[in-house]
Amino acid sequence: MLGLEAMPVLAIPEAEAIRKLEVVAVHVVVNAEGEPIFPVYHYVALNAEGQPVFPFHQQLNQLVLPMFMTAEQAQQEKKALEGRIPDTEGSRVVSMPLNVALERNERLVQEIKARDESQSLVTPLVPAMADWRKAEELLRAEGFSRQEIARNLKVPVFLTHPPISITPPGTEEAKIALFFNYSQLQQAKQAVPGFEGEDKVLNLTQALNLLVQEEEDTYFFFPTEDLIKTFQAQQEAAQESDP
Length: 243
Prior knowledge:
Blueprint: H1 14-19, E1 25-30, E2 62-64, E3 67-68, H2 71-84, E4 92-97, H3 98-115, E5 120-122, E6 125-126, H4 129-141, H5 146-152, E7 156-161, E8 165-166, E9 175-178, H6 182-190, E10 198-203, H7 204-213, E11 219-221, H8 225-241
Parallel strand pairs: 2-5, 3-6, 9-11
Antiparallel strand pairs: 1-4, 7-10, 8-9
């Protein structure tokens, strides 16, 4: 369940599948003017054994803008950048839904190309390390080597076999839930009496393939823990600002 397949013939529009990523909050570091800060990396993240989770070296004329899936990761990155990059005074972390971030990245690529055609932009999505490690554990149990996992697993998405169906908020029809957080999968399993299914993991590319291939639209992404936290924090801030 690990390979990265090409995008298939679409049963639902790809744009609709991307819109479903609105339930994923991502966090990026920007400067005082709200412009992205492009740090210099050799690797974006390491796993528990110190091996690269995202096995690419930053190339010459390549800008890297990591999108963190937890605010804590982004705050740690902000502190690290303040210690090694000049002119980061006033930098901050901004949060947005992943589908909005992907649209923003497309515009950013065009702006970068307009300034310098030799430059390119890489925008890796950085999952919580606890989730990546659990995904690695599950895949190792299925017989995949660490090299295969490091090469092919970028962003884990969890589900069960047989799958768990949940009624998404604001709807009346139950759908098969796909989870970015392993802890949320466990909570969902506990809510099903006598459930004895197996935990499985897909790469995000595979999960999107499921969505675009399925004519009946039977899958949905469960809102991430960090999206829920971000939404709650925004609500609290709005309430405090009200007279």
